[in-house]
Amino acid sequence: MTGEGWWWRAAARVGGAVxxxxxxxxxxxxxxxxxxxxxxxAALGGPGSQASAAALEAARAxxxxxxxxxxxxxxxxxRLLRGxxxxxxxxxxxxxxxxxxxxxxxxLLTFTALLLAWALALVSVVIASGHSRRARxxxxxLDLTAAAMPNFWLASLLVLLFASVxxxxxxxSTGGFSGIVLPALALAIPTAGFxxxxxxxxxxxxxxxxxxxxxxxxxxxxxGIRVRHVMRHGLVPGLNLTAWALGSLLGGAxxxxxxxxxxxxGRTLVTGVLGRDVPVVLGVVLFSACAxxxxxxxxxxxxxxxxxxTESRLAQAVPRA
Amino acid sequence: MxxxxxxxxxxxxxxxxxxxxxxxxxxxxxxxxxxxxxxDEPRTHLVYATGDGEPSCLDPHVGGNFxxxxxxxxxxxxxxxxxxxxxxxxxxxxxxxxxxDGLTWEFTLRDGATFSDGTPVDAEAVKVNIEHLQDPDxxxxxxxxxxxQVAAAEVVAADVVRFTLTRPxxxxxxxxxxxxxxMQSPAGIARGMDENCLAPIGSGPFIIDEWVKQxxxxxxxxxxxxxxxxxxxxxxxAAAETLTWRFIPDATARFAALEAGQVDIIDNPxxxxxxxxxxxxxxxxxxxxxxxxxxxxxxxxxxxPFDDQRVREAFIASANVDAGxxxxxxxxxxxxxxxxxxxxxxxxQSPEAYVTDPELANALLDxxxxxxxxxxxxxxxxxxxxxARFPVTGAQSTxxxxxxxxxxxxxxxxxxxxxxxxxxxxxxxxxALGAYEYEMVSAPYTKIGPDVLRFLYHSDATVPAPxxxxxxxxxxxxxxxxxxxxxxxTSMDVEERDAAARAAQEWIANASIILPIYDQQNHFLYRGDxxxxxxxxxxxxxxxxxxxxx
Lengths: 321, 550
Fold this sequence. Notes:
Helices cover 77% and strands 0% of the residues of chain A.
């Protein structure tokens, strides 16, 4: 591939990402104008404030809410360009600081959940890549059940079983590692169900493919065939789904963080939306969009390694057949 | 294709299955050992888990909501308190006098009281606090209402402060007892709002050490603490040294944490959890309903259909509240038939005004002209359906209360009402009220004393605050009631004030403007080995200053 072509594609990619972020920022800003409630009340004890006219005016002036909405929008975008996310109305500290405190715990939770989800999905896919029809149908049924489970319900179930009955794990976050197991599982299980399901289609196709016969003819062991050929084929759709999975895990974190009383972005978002803390909500939304864009990019790169067809296709810029 | 070996897949399945279990199991070993105590020595550490939201500022002068009051009770103290009988007793103020015209109050402050930073609790400090509450830049929305009548606070002597009022305020002491008007160190206030929000400095039993946002607040015992209110003793030497204040929004997780010994005390339990705790040897239950108004459904009297008293009476007669309370609250929420909390000494119950009688309801609606029925069985009059919009918010109504509203909705439907319940978030709910998009609503209101009736049902309370908020959801504007409420607010004659409070409740019952349900529920569950745990009888926030753990 030529250097020029790569730069062109990279620039297009980055330009696309920026366009996504600007659109997300604008949509979020507009959406927040339409939900009822006065953001100034965020600074005055929350909705239903009985604050005096003077106090309300002071809060509006402090956050620039008394200016025309377009001025507020352009000011927001201009500050965003300079990397300034503004100040939280409720907490009166920079949004970057609010996010900074919340990002770590959420990333830890979502990545632990993603690893667990892949581990569980792999177990199911390995079973499915074999020949036992019964094992395959059991795994398939489990995947379906897992994928269909709402994570808040699963969370309560896990707390009941592992915290209340068995007493293995603490029911709410301890700040230590044991506290992350149940929330990560609650997020991982439904995701694992989805991952395993899409992988299984690829696995099923691969099991009967002619190249398996030829590999067998070459004298490859059954395990080798399964890992090197069947699984590798089956994983591509799953990897494709990882960007989506991370997005869904970030979304699920909003519920799970509240249930397990963990600090994090999800909880920040819920509090921000309920309290009409506009800068915080915009900050979380933008961060999530950023994370999504980055993960999608990384996934593409990983897939091109796992599936060489993609790499050559990318290199030759040949449209997908 | 034939399987080469029938055993391999099963073996692999087992192996991978075991790997998955192996991934999880070792983690179990890491689970914390801070569960059940093993020694007989009292624990020095106490953990309180609240289901109320996390405040954005810990200084209750700023804004002023219930989550702030819960924490402020551990750190800050007020000028006066209430005893368990509801009588005002000294706290930071040891005594007070009021002039005959009710316009001048002098408070003498407790000898030797100091804030935890060493600043004395003196007249100057009280003056600074009142001015802080009244300063628009503080953004107070609750506390400033309590001191709105105070035109000036002046230092008479080092330990005597004089309040000059714009009008007599019979509820001044009740107002000053509230945690949103608690006293803070002037040096703390002088640091500016950002810093003071993180750790207000008070004279209370605990000192804020660290606030890890979204997670917990760490507090340490105030070693110099001497100023507990009359009726509550000084902390024992064995009382907990440190306090962790946790935010656990989910009720199931909160209770599981209590059962596991991860926390010592929780608030906002579910009714079924109260039953479990009551039947458990390891757990205990404290029922401390909040003062002020009872929880009630208010009927908007300014518009169709509830502008007609017969329709209001019919709605009330259609509701079988008692049956719902018994099943949904498992008996932990006794019925109220008063606009006031049963904690209020002047509360008058009027059970005869709230009797369930569907036949009477039907007769009243016929009489009021709602005689036709449409295809859904909803009554109509001149082509208009008998509809009542009922916005409900999960932020104010628990799951059980929402279920109760649905039962009331079903009862009303039997006699031909179309009650439309809409579940909203708190901001949208206030939005709906502000836009008058409701015929009925349930809005709790906490305040100490019968003066809460003036806040809720005086015609002045139909005028929206600058934020759009108004408290008179029933939209009552009645000169006779206003006169009674004015007497409650201003009369310094105790007997006259008490009589007016009783008459106002009678008026409210006779006019059928509300359907009282129960006291504002406020339950705590705690580990059975705790002693000296109680609620502070002002707004019944938890008093952890004296708790001995184990």
